[in-house]
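Here is the promised in-class demo. Please do not try to memorize the tokens; focus on the logic of going from shape to residues.
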């Protein structure tokens, strides 16, 4: 992915106006509202990344299914990739004048808006014969507004002709005529080692303590593995990984020896630096000695370690590695699937393991502070489209496993004349059940099946209906980010707190009151969720040219920062040169010379009270970014949650004294950058009590208004409509930016307030009787009925089901 131009940034209008009511009101605009389009950006961009890059990468990463028939014929089934087609009418429908299927047709017909999932398979026999074949695996949901949707790229006038509103921005699926949304969830930042203290770690073994460094490893195809480095009370460390939800414990020295052909002396040099304490050096030496004492036969080479681990874990990898493969192949598969899976080479994994060990011992010696997974600086957004991709991957993996059972069963019926031909492979595929129904079930219910490589804070409720009780409620669904239903049962309120690190990313007032308060949050208006993956090799070459010493060379100075790119150690930079490197990278970001969403987080060395010092560079997807003004370049720069903590950002430059301007490197683009779309719609929010702003965000989503304009093409079970909505005479500036006058939801009223001696009227108001009779606050409730039309006139006539959505 090449660096793109500086993206357009939303800045609220300077002052409100009634221009939308007086200029071209009621006419269809020529272009879509960019502010409304930005609401569904986290969902549509992630889904487009899945269909363009992620799905093929994910399916190609499935390990081949290898097995032997009773006659010792070795068969291997591989998945080369896959694709999802655009929604089209069935091939049997020869009378269709247009093969395309549009979302309005799926709504009115109470059908699913789906496309064909096609996988590319390759079958090899005895390593020689290869049979390539494309196979349809069923219909899977297609996101409305994505590049697969036929609404993509249409103008507002064309959208209206296709049964949509002119402001349709997509970002949801249609299942049985109902709109379903895969909401965002909070997840711990991927590929970042987090210092944790948990008393539950002591139950892992007799010597385990509560201290550990945990890394949530995630590959580019969003496969997930949890790796934890634990500190033991005897001064050593243990490495814990999981395979098929079973926990395993092993010495990190053994893992390093299996990954690289390296001696104990080289390991000692990698783990120690000049100036380390004698206690730390003795602990590392003890770990190296204990490895040999734990095994019966001395492990003197990389091959002997691989054979030892392969023989130990062969029984756990049944089905993953065939029986005829040697023990070292089992070890390679184990390390590939469980240990730092986001890295490909053994040397990269060794470098990160050494970094985790050093950080763990620094944390135990109180040289760095504890970190919290509840802190927004270590958050990322878990996008539903990538979970959708992982569900497809795991179902295809099960599909391949069942292929082996079918072929063996067909062989046993006629073993003497059985030949593996293209026709035979096609017959085996026909006997397998397609996976489309299971994927549609996930989107419909939001429940994740118990599958490997899918670790979420929630396994249920990931899909919610995109309700249109009011237009503001509908908009807020797309910016919702949930902490996880697990935390709603906790008695502590720590996870509900709004921490200062969330400034500019999470709206402080747009959260419901009651049980989900602080757990169900909303992104700010300018917060951007990244999608896609740039070229890491180009970023590595750029930082190396700017003065970073590669990891293969000696350190440039005694005091150096380790430089990590997406969880991989790429080099070192001295303490003196690090600030200049960071400033240069920010300058290049502003001018489009490097990836514009690159996160440059320099954690300085501050002693025992700070985080472990390092320079973290992140370019992966699902990160929260927001625009600010770079004062040195006078250009917009996107910053992330981790780097913002160590930056000085001025809220308003006009309020900063002249002598203090040099302290700030960035400034906010607007005073309201910390609020969500609904938070910006609260009038005079700076003059209200904070709870009142929260209540207003909730009440605006519950009011009766105008949820949509394409009433004949709707299939919601219930809708509310205000008959005579008014445009507010008093409005904030964001009201015009969202074009909320097109979806009026309120009535102007004059309220008389009796002060001091008057009775407490609470939320009441006095209205004119004639105004009420003329339709003040008059509304309608629309309900949907589904009719099944069948031919009952003739006996034994085939029934022709026809479902139709309509309102009464």
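The designed amino acids, position by position:
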């Amino acid at each position: 992915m090449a660096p793109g131009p500086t993206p357009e940034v939303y800045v609220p209008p300077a002052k409100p106006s009634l221009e939308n009511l007086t200029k071209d009101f009621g006419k269809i605009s020529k272009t879509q509202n960019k502010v409304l389009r930005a609401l569904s950006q986290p969902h549509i961009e992630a889904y487009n990344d899945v269909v363009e890059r992620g799905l093929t990468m994910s399916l190609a990463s499935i390990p081949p299914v290898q097995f032997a028939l009773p006659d010792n014929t070795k068969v291997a089934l591989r998945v080369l990739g896959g694709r999802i087609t655009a929604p089209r009418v069935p091939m049997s429908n020869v009378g269709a004048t247009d093969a395309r299927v549009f979302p309005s047709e799926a709504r009115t017909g109470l059908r699913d808006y789906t496309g064909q999932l096609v996988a590319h398979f390759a079958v090899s026999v005895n390593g020689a014969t290869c049979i390539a074949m494309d196979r349809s695996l069923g219909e899977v949901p297609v996101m409305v507004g994505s590049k697969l949707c036929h609404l993509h790229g249409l103008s507002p006038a064309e959208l209206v002709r296709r049964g949509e509103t002119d402001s349709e921005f997509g970002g949801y699926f249609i299942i049985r005529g109902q709109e379903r949304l895969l909401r965002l969830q909070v997840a711990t930042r991927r590929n970042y080692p987090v210092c944790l203290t948990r008393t539950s770690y002591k139950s892992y073994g007799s010597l385990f303590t509560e201290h550990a460094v945990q890394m949530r490893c995630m590959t580019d195809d969003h496969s997930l593995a949890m790796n934890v480095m634990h500190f033991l009370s005897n001064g050593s460390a243990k490495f814990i990984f999981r395979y098929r939800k079973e926990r395993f414990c092993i010495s990190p020295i053994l893992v390093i020896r299996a990954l690289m052909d390296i001696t104990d002396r080289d390991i000692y040099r990698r783990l120690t630096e000049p100036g380390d304490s004698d206690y730390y050096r003795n602990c590392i030496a003890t770990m190296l000695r204990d490895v040999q004492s734990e095994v019966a036969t001395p492990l003197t080479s990389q091959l002997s370690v691989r054979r030892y681990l392969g023989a130990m874990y062969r029984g756990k990898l049944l089905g993953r590695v065939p029986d005829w493969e040697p023990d070292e192949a089992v070890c390679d598969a184990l390390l590939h699937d469980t240990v730092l899976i986001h890295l490909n080479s053994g040397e990269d994994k060794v470098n990160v393991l050494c970094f985790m060990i050093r950080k763990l011992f620094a944390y135990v010696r109180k040289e760095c502070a504890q970190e919290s997974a509840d802190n927004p600086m270590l958050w990322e957004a878990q996008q539903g489209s990538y979970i959708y991709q992982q569900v497809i991957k795991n179902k295809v993996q099960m599909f391949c496993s069942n292929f082996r059972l079918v072929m063996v069963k067909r062989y046993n019926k006629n073993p003497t004349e059985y030949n593996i031909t293209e026709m035979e492979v096609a017959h085996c595929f026909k006997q397998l059940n397609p996976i489309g129904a299971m994927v549609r079930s996930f989107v419909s219910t939001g429940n994740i099946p118990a599958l490997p490589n899918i670790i979420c804070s929630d396994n249920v409720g990931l899909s919610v209906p995109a309700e249109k009780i009011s237009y503001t409620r509908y908009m807020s669904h797309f910016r919702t980010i949930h902490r996880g239903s697990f935390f709603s049962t906790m008695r502590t309120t720590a996870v509900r707190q709004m921490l200062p690190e969330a400034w500019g990313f999470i709206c402080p007032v747009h959260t419901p009151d009651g049980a989900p308060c602080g757990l169900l949050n909303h992104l700010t208006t300018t917060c951007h969720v990244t999608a896609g993956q740039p070229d890491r090799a180009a970023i590595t070459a750029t930082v190396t040219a700017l003065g970073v010493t590669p990891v293969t060379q000696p350190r440039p100075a005694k005091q150096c920062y380790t430089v990590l790119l997406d969880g991989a150690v790429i080099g070192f930079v001295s303490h003196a040169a690090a600030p200049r490197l960071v400033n240069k990278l920010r300058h290049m970001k502003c001018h489009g010379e490097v990836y514009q969403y690159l996160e440059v987080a320099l954690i300085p060395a501050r002693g025992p009270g700070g985080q472990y010092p390092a320079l973290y560079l992140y370019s992966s997807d699902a990160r929260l970014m927001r625009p600010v003004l770079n004062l040195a370049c006078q250009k917009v720069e996107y910053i992330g949650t981790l780097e913002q903590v160590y930056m000085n950002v001025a809220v308003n430059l006009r309020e900063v004294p002249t002598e203090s301007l040099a302290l700030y490197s960035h400034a906010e683009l607007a005073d309201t950058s910390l609020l969500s779309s609904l938070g910006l719609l609260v009038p005079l929010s700076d003059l209200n009590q904070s709870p009142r702003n929260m209540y207003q965000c909730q009440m605006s989503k519950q009011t009766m208004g105008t949820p949509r304009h394409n009433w004949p093409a709707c299939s919601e079970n219930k809708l509310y409509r205000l008959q005579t909505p008014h445009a507010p005479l008093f409005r904030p500036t964001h009201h015009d930016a969202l074009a909320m006058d097109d979806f009026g939801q309120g009535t102007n009223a004059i309220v008389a307030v009796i002060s001091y001696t008057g009775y407490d009227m609470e939320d009441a108001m006095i209205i004119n009787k004639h105004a009420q009779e003329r339709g003040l606050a008059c509304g309608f409730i629309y309900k949907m009925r589904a009719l099944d039309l069948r031919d009952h006139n003739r006996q034994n006539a085939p029934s022709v089901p026809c479902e139709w959505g309509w309102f009464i």
